[in-house]
Amino acid sequence: MSLKTVLILLGLALATIFALVCVLLTRERSPRTCQHVPPEQEDTEDGQSLVFADLTPEEMSQVVRYLQGHLGVPLVDASRAKPSENCIASVDLQLPAKAEVLRFLDGGGARPPREALAVLYFGNQAEPNVTEYVVGPLPTPAYHRDVTVHKYGGKLPYHRRPVTGREYVDINALIQRELKKAPRFLTACCESDGTNLVTLTTAPRGFKSGDRVTWFVLFHNVAGTGYYLSPVGLEVLVDHGDLHVSQWQLLQVFYNGRFFASTGDLEQEFVAGALEVVRLKQPQADAVLGSMKPRRPPGSLGPLQFEPQGPRYSVRDNRVTFQGWSIAFGMNPNTGPRLFDIRYRGERIVYELSLQEALALYGSNCPGGMSTRYLDGSFGIGRFAYELVQGLDCPYTATYVDRHYLAETDTPKTNQNSLCIFEHDSALPLRRHFSDSQSLYYGGLRRNTLVIRTISTLINYDYIWDFMFHGSGAVEVRVHATGYISSSFFHGQGTDYGNRVGPHTLGTMHLHHIHYKVDLDVDGQLNSLETQDMEYEFVKDPWSTQNTIERPYLRRERLEKEDEAAFPLNVPMPHYLSFVSPNPNKWEHPRSYRIQIISFAGKHLPTNSSMERSISWGRYQLAVTRRKEEEPTSTSIYNQNDPWTPTVAFADYINNETITNEDLVAWITVGFLHVPCAEDIPNTVTVGNGVGFFLRPYNYFNEDPSVDSADSVYFSSEQDVGACGANPLACLSSAAACAPRPRPFHFGGFLNL
Hints:
This protein has nine helices and 34 strands. It is globular and about 110 Å long. The N and C termini lie far apart (87 Å).
């Protein structure tokens, strides 16, 4: 081989090596398909959202220790406190005033002092009462101030306090003692000595202020299934209003349509043969009505959602960011989920978005059912948001967050993994178009949404609370109801109040009404309210004057007063209702956000009802009021046990004040009427049982902001649609190889009950 040939071959070899090195270097610089890509850091918030953060367990403990050492009265742990003793009922975050927060967030002002709100029950005083203290500053408390009179206009009567777990234990002990007075009846009616029967509370508790008299409904208890579907027909009325448990007494007994003065009288009637008894067998676990145990072995796996390159959202402390969105999240142990400082593309849209109350109002021909109006905030919507089941309650790969609370004990409790955050592919285009004329192309964008979810179990019902953030700048709020229905014993004309769903079980009609607070700040704090709707006008046809045409036109109206902005429940509202800014967009329209409500609410309680004012928020599907620090919530945990003299009456907020260029709040009611049927056994399904509302940009932007999304898809007839560079959908085959190895399944939700 000649030297010239050798040099040529050597040169070619060097060129080949150089080319390969360049290719390898280029590949290293571009992200690998399965390489984790962290979400873009959209701003440097530097912990500002912590001004809204829930209390930590350490802060709660500090508050408890401070109160124990500075109030000068004996305090008993609420988990064992008698009504005649003093205890700390709860400790939660005391939110700073909005003006202070905005000075800190927007104006470079000082961080507001961090404070707690402590609720105490003082039973061991000459005048027993409920007192609320603000304690601060945290983490090392040095002061406390009584805010009860300032908040409520006077002292809080002791009878308004929510019922504690210890109080229920003592009530059940009383009921068990009374049941022992009717042994033969219990054997005949229920194959029971009373120990296998469980009670379900009703509320409110009586007919007038000061009453603490409650109907308790008895059910067969079967391990591993919901007892709510197995009523035995027996209900008892208990007076538990005295400070001394020994003075509590059973006032009445109801069985199968008849009332008795005591269980002893019930027994006498049975022994005398004067009582018609429906003989029930003790249900068996494998055949009990409402069992949720699978009836078939597991089948093939369904579709799974995963993130090929890791989550595209970021969670830091109490703040989540996602494709232009920024949200501070938290949980009130009473009222449940609450969000603050919701921003899109750096602009605040909502200052506060929080659940206020969940009402369940029942009908029945049994005393327990017909008197039930549960106000779930008094039981604890946030407190009873337990651990979520990964892969079912939320996607397996979601981010799960612990929530902490202190209620009815001096020790903070943790509900692990009780809030989840995930990106959801709804399998629906956010927008799309296929062009089949002039030029041929396709353009679209998947409807991917950030979801913040928690689920509350309130006795028998489970409420799924969703807050969703869309690429179009819209916020969606939605609640689904599932879980077990509540039931009554079927007797007489029971079907006037529901449907029979078992041999002796009446699924009782009821309504679910949910209330939200939405403090919108659209392009600033000062907003007005505008409605738009369509009308028809009859005009002469401009090109054929002998004819007329019915032309739709847009009727715009600015609402000036609160009374104009209070829209009664189930009365048609304007189709478009918006919070408007004084500032225009590029097209000279006011920058606005539209409120769109999706609801199938039942009828509100008649206003002449003695307890209606306690739930007067339910009069309105939407009410817009001027924001005031002294009107932070639409209800109170004390309304449940004294609805006849409500601690907070929402109707008082609507007093015809001006709502033009003011800081405004929208109060929104959604809900549905539920008449249970056979298909509600074993559980009510979420399909068709979801309601909520949207906050949608309306001329807020100059165009749909989702046009800037990196997820957009566009290709024309002239392109190679199978090329990954031209069409992101063509990259999915390689992304499918990035399925993550899921972490082992874990559930600890039974450990903290």
